[in-house]
Amino acid sequence: MARSKRDILTAVFLLILTCVFYAATFTIKKTSFGTVGSEVWPRAILIGQGILCILYLAKALRGAYTEEEGQGGGLVGWFATYRNALVCFALYAVFLITLPYAGMLIGSILFVFLLLNFLGGWSAGRMAVHGAVAVFSMGAMWAVFTFGLRVILPEGEILRIW
């Protein structure tokens, strides 16, 4: 099957699935203790997902996605095509496995730092920028969840020692 037809079928399938999920939000039980209904956030996420699916379908119908050349066929070609995504998933799996030991703060900083370096390059200047981005963004996110929203995040064995 040609790449453009696969993309069209995938976009239509994702759009239908998003509509089914959106319809399912009408069956979410109403709670009496919240100021915002329990169906608001799922609907907001699904509306954003629906917009992205429509954009994907429009680009697929225009033929914006073409077959990548030079990757080869078979399993080796598949790994070459999806190498970045597979490494990202592998890094995320390592983050989840080490979460009880490293904790949310240290683990997320290391995860973002390694991910940015893998995708953006390992030069010294880039590593400094990636380190700063990882520390400030994950530190701010951790602070918002810990102090602002009062969410108990995993502290890990490393921080528990101190």
What does this structure look like?
- By secondary structure, this protein is mainly α.
- The model has no long low-confidence stretch (mean pLDDT 90).
- The chain folds into 2 domains: 65 residues; 86 residues, no CATH class.
- Helix 1 packs antiparallel against helix 2 and helix 4 packs across helix 5.
- It is flat, with a radius of gyration of 21 Å.
- It has 6 helices and no strands.
List the helices and strands and how they pair.
Blueprint: H1 3-24, H2 40-62, H3 74-81, H4 83-120, H5 124-148, H6 156-161
Helix pairs in contact: 1-2, 4-5
By secondary-structure content and strand pairing, the structural class works out as: mainly alpha
Report mean pLDDT, rounded to a whole number: 90
How helix-rich are the residues, as a percent range? over 70%
Show unreliable segments: none
Strand content: under 5%
Q: Please tell me what the overall shape is.
A: flat
Largest sheet: none
The tally of beta strands, per DSSP, is 0
Count of all domains: 2
Q: Please count the helical segments.
A: 6
End-to-end separation: 57 Å
Order of helices and strands: HHHHHH
Radius of gyration equals 21 Å
